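Please produce the structure of this protein holding zinc ion.
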Amino acid sequence: MYIKWLCMLCGDVKISNTHRHHEMNFCRCNQSGCDAEEYLTRWCGSAKFINKYDYNFFDEIILNLINQKLPKFKEPNKAYEFIIKMEDKIIESLI
Ligand SMILES: [Zn+2]
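Below is the modeled complex.
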């Protein structure tokens, strides 16, 4: 799940990803933040909830890569980094 929120101080809109554990996301002015977990969300500063999206692009990307047998990575960490970057690009479009 992805949580879209707004910093009431600077107007920055962010997306926090519940699949990334213990990752506090901060806004542009660094006064507000959100740590979205699967069962709870921690907030700080003047963050305001906007919307949530019940998708899991991470798993969708992996399933598509497996189905297409592309690409092949020699190191598993490289594959993980590649998928994380793809997921980040997709969730940017939710802002
Ligand atoms: Zn801010």
